[in-house]
Amino acid sequence: MDMPPRQNLGISAYQRLKRDIIRGVFSPGEKLLMSRLKSRYELGVGPLREALSQLVAERLVIAISQRGYRVAPVSVAELEDIYDARAELEAMMLRLAIERGDDSWEADILAKSHTLNKVVEVHSADDALDVWDSRHKAFHAALVAGCGSDHLLRARAGLFDQAERYRHLWLQETVFSAQALEEKRRQHNALVKVVLDRHSERASDMMRDHLLTPLPIITDVLKRRGLIAQARRAEGGVESPG
């Protein structure tokens, strides 16, 4: 059987490791020992180093010269900074989208809203998390797509990546709670109505408030699970990558 090209191995390692970091398989501040990574992903050092380098660039991993790698720590300060930046940027982009969006933009919003509301039909807990998250991302992307700026969309994507670890903690608290999910559905439907009515300032304010609602939930999870303290304890040093 032919081996996949080296580039494909590197991409695979990056995608799998990133997913595991976001999902908490590797905790904030945890040492990423090469021996453990090789065993878990059944890959060689080369593809894994490529993956780690890319994740360092995305600030999900920290490299310490000659001493290996750690999962980047988390903090309430970083959480608040990322979410504030996302809320301000997305609110502005939505205002532009309302000013510039056409009929196809409106139709896409309605389609994405419809499929998001139907996640209630998914019964498996794990499936619900994956499906709701995917459709939720698509819904929010559709709302701002009409802004007409590739640069703003790329900036938004970068902030979204930075928020992923924090978002996953919020998802676990939201998707498995019928009450929380119903509240999100209510917020989304209200937002769609204001957007389609072309009330740009009101929609912008609603978007900002909507994106900031997870902050207290995520802060509580970080403290309840001891993730901040865990990351601080791990800052004392990094073992050899083994």
List keywords for this structure.
242 residues; mainly alpha; Arc Repressor Mutant, subunit A; Four Helix Bundle (Hemerythrin (Met), subunit A); 2 domains; two-stranded antiparallel ribbon; 11 helices; 2 strands; globular
CATH superfamily heading of the largest domain: GntR ligand-binding domain-like
Number of helical segments with 4 or more residues = 11
Shape: globular
Percent of sequence in beta strands: under 5%
Radius of gyration, in angstroms, nearest whole number? 20 Å
Query: What is the CATH fold-level name of the largest domain?
Result: Four Helix Bundle (Hemerythrin (Met), subunit A)
Our count of domains comes out at 2
> What are the low-pLDDT stretches, counting only 5+ consecutive residues below 50?
237-242
Largest sheet: 2 strands, antiparallel
The helix/strand class is mainly alpha
The mean pLDDT is: 88
- What is the helix fraction of residues, given as a range? over 70%
CATH architectural arrangement of the largest domain: Up-down Bundle
For the termini, the CA-CA separation is 29 Å
Number of E strands: 2
Order of helices and strands: HHHEEHHHHHHHH
Question: CATH class of the largest domain, please?
Answer: Mainly Alpha
Reading side by side through the largest sheet, how are the strands ordered? 1-2
Describe the 3D structure.
- Helix content is 72%, strand content 3%.
- It starts with 5 loop residues before the first helix and ends in an 8-residue tail after the last helix.
- A hairpin with a 3-residue loop joins strand 1 (61-64) and strand 2 (68-71).
- The chain has a two-stranded antiparallel ribbon.
- The chain has helices at residues 6-22, 34-41, 45-57, 76-100, 103-117, 125-144, 150-174, 178-196, 200-212, 214-224, 227-234; strands spanning 61-64, 68-71.
- Mean pLDDT is 88; it is low at 237-242.
- The chain folds into two domains: 6-72, Winged helix-like DNA-binding domain superfamily/Winged helix DNA-binding domain (Arc Repressor Mutant, subunit A, Orthogonal Bundle); 76-223, GntR ligand-binding domain-like (Four Helix Bundle (Hemerythrin (Met), subunit A)), CATH 1.20.120.
- The protein is mainly alpha-helical and 242 residues long.
